[in-house]
Amino acid sequence: MGNPFRIVKLIAETVPLLSVPARTLSAQDGFDLMMDLVELGEIRLFDKVVTDASGTITSHRPGQQTKIIPVISGLPFLKARGENPGPNGSLGAVQQTYFSPTPNFAIVLYKLAKMLIDDWSATQVVYGGIGAGGNAAVTDCHSTGHCVDFYGANTKRGNFDVRQHWWMRPVYDSAGDIHPSEGNGWALDRWKNETNTYFRLAMSPEPQDAAPAEFFAAVYEFAHNETRAEAFDINPMDFSSGIKLRMGFIMHPDYPKKTTPGRQSHNDHIHFQLGNTR
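Now predict its structure.
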């Protein structure tokens, strides 16, 4: 960790930047903050840091994707299989040698890890699409390192999987009755062609849905506060209350559109991003 006075100075420098939403950071601020967190041991780089004679870092640059060891603040990030046909989208996730977000998105991942550790005592996160997409020929925010597919997490308050504990769950109305659009079976869209959707777990009368409702609402709140969420994405309080949703940049199993990009292509994850999709 080096000189303790340097460590104190680094902590003092990082606190103000960490207190503002990641989406508001400039490329330079995001890079400087990432490198401070590297020095503090919270983020580990895959490639060695190289500097020139003046001490300027030449091996990593603001705005450019950086290979990072997928263990952030001690929390392992495991890569989902992707095309996983089973009822658990996190099943078969594996540890990779690195993923490659932009420095600014590395800050999103760091803040996500801290939230999950501090609030949920998380022991593992399952992700997809950080520096790579499902189609190698397509260049989008996944391949360019400024978005993520969040599949779930293991925590000391329970293990949560988007497909198993959200997509597959029944849709209830505000009276606690099965919604008339209810489909059958996990492979079908339980909303059918409905566009007047809401966060289904908020309406569920079943005790097993209480903890997942709280957990996924917390992840939505994080994404809304830190990443791209404009007038399209309703605020976290309305989301967790089961108020009618609108189409926006945060995508999930209750997204108010069926086809791609919509809830069917997000039946096993929550998508959130910085900046443009392409």
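The helical segments are 4-18, 27-39, 103-120, 162-167, 210-226, 236-241.
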